[in-house]
Design brief:
The protein folds into two domains: 71 residues, RNA-binding S4 domain (Structural Genomics Hypothetical 15.5 Kd Protein In mrcA-pckA Intergenic Region, Chain A, Roll); 245 residues, 2-Layer Sandwich (Pseudouridine synthase). It contains seven helices and 17 strands. Strands 8, 9, 10, 11, 12, 13, 14, 15, 16 and 17 form a ten-stranded mixed sheet that branches. The longest helix is centred in the C-terminal third of the chain and has 16 residues.
């Protein structure tokens, strides 16, 4: 059986995904030359009886999506099959997808219609099952939710997952509810047309108000659980992040990061590359005090902040995409979660108590 790769991404450990598109493959499910004695028959009926388990509605949807070719060209459902026609039918699947167990997990649904489901993910939740995380993931909860509504196509890859964010990153994540929506949205992520803005609390102060980081990214040469920047372009894929200062606290800064590309760990790696590791990012060394004083009270203050937000301080705040059916541009915003707000409030109080102002910072 022939397969054609649509987007390609490197294999990564389950707990270190950020913004990468799912591994969708196009599978050939039918390839025949029609017999010379074939009577004129509608293409949807002809294909349905020749693919095991296919329903008329699924075949019709596939034809509408251009997944059935006759003599190398897409056709409409009312096309009449003729003798010696060459018919090829495809379907989309996700490489390496496994059986997903539905689980009743609370979900914060931001938006839903017949095509898409947008969820505000809490921190400390793995997005999909994998080694060491067979259940309790966001996809387990999504499957249960959609099954209760009878609103899921059986063949949707990975329950419609079109991008991922890290386990400890909070914020907006998008699912497709139909195969057509899955393919349409995955293409938008592949082409980097989806609008994504993150808020991050990072170590250190910035001399500038905004800037751009542009460097290739690939696995770290010594630590395979990390990624690294290769500015000379000798390894990896190009990655671009634009950033803007939102609020200064002297030893840490709240920034907005706008993704132009979407590589695994992109914001975390880019911020560390310019000397501003994410606050409490244990994977990249942000769980240590990187800026500030040597006094015991300051060390205790920072430890208290770490307790308030026991993860990297990164939140997927906005998401914008073109709706796969209506063609309208849709934009959504997620407010900062409680743990990140608590840490920010503590830094604001600290800054005020020291009598610091923007010029002194």
């Amino acid at each position: 059986m022939a397969t054609t790769q649509i987007p390609t991404i490197p294999d990564t450990e389950n707990d270190i995904y950020e913004e990468e598109v799912g591994d969708i493959i196009k599978i050939e499910t039918l390839n025949i030359i029609v017999d010379k004695g074939q009577e004129l028959t509608r293409i949807d009926k002809f294909v349905q009886v020749r693919i095991v388990g296919a329903t008329r509605s699924k075949v019709q949807q596939g034809i509408d999506d251009g997944m059935v070719l006759v003599n190398g060209k897409p056709v409409k459902n009312n096309y009449k099959v003729r003798p010696l026609d060459h018919i090829v039918a495809y379907q989309y699947k996700v490489e390496g997808s496994e059986l997903i167990i539905p689980q009743n997990i609370p979900l914060e649904i931001v938006y839903e219609d017949d095509d898409v489901l947008l969820i505000n993910k809490t921190p400390n939740m793995v997005v999909h099952p994998g080694a060491g995380n067979p259940n309790g993931t966001l996809i387990n909860g999504v499957m249960y939710y959609l099954q209760q509504k009878n609103a899921i196509e059986e063949d949707i890859p990975r329950m419609g997952l079109v991008h991922r964010i890290d386990k400890d990153t909070s914020g907006l994540i998008l699912f497709a509810k139909t195969t057509k929506a899955m393919v349409h949205l995955a293409q938008q992520f592949k082409e980097h047309t989806v609008k994504r803005r993150y808020n991050a609390l990072v170590w250190g102060d910035f001399e500038e108000e905004e800037g751009t980081i542009n460097c290739h990214m690939d696995r770290h040469e010594r630590n395979r659980m990390q990624f690294d920047c290769y500015p000379d372009g000798s390894k990896g894929k190009h990655a671009i992040t634009h950033y803007k200062v939102l609020e200064r606290f002297g030893y840490v800064t709240l920034v907005e990061c706008i993704l132009e590309t979407g590589r695994t760990h992109q914001i975390r790696v880019h911020m560390k590359h310019i000397g501003h590791t994410l606050f409490n990012d244990y994977r990249y060394g942000g769980e240590r005090i990187l800026k500030g004083t040597i006094y015991t009270k300051y060390k205790q203050f920072v430890e208290n902040c770490f307790t308030l937000i026991p993860r990297q301080a990164l939140h997927a705040r906005t998401l914008g995409f073109v709706h796969p059916t209506t063609g309208l541009e849709m934009n959504f915003t997620s407010e900062l979660p409680a743990d990140m707000n608590a840490a920010l409030a503590k830094w604001r109080a600290y800054t005020k108590s020291k009598g610091l102002n923007d010029q002194e910072l």
